[in-house]
Amino acid sequence: MQKWVCTKCGEKEIPQDIEYCEECTEKSFKKIGGWLYLPAISLILSIINTLFLLGKTVNTMPQFYSALPDHWQFFIIFEITSNALLLLLTISTVIFFFRKSKKAPRLCVLFYLSNTIIKGITVFLIANILSIPISYNNILPALQAIVTTAIWVPYFMVSIRVKRTFVN
């Protein structure tokens, strides 16, 4: 009869239905790995993207802002404020994420939900306040946020890897 051993260390005997011994399993969960690489990359790219968008908006708006109608001024203030708040939430989430804090999964869920809500409000404002017909380009960020939230919120709520990784 063939003996099953850990595929990582190759030393300890294990049951046939698992890959790693208990020690190797614990070691692998102490670092960010598996599917958690994707939200980690996503959070970092989100910070870069938001900084770029805020910088671009803040640099170009002063020369045009006073000439804009009130509803456009309201929209721009909403965009700058919501992006700044989302940036702060994202930075906090990244800090807790890479410290592997117990708070990180809840912050990730809050980030994804907040992002989706903000994108939804933006589409609503574009259609109702600015009276711009909804187009594919206007609604795409909201749809992407909905799909992303539908994938990652359940993952952060039920994943064993998440529960074992974020323990500090």
TrEMBL record:
Keywords from the named record: Membrane, Transmembrane, Transmembrane helix
Keyword Metal-binding annotated: no
Segments traversing the membrane: 35-54, 74-98, 110-133, 139-158
Pfam families in alphabetical order: DUF2569
Keyword ATP-binding: no
Name listed for the protein in its UniProt record: DUF2569 domain-containing protein
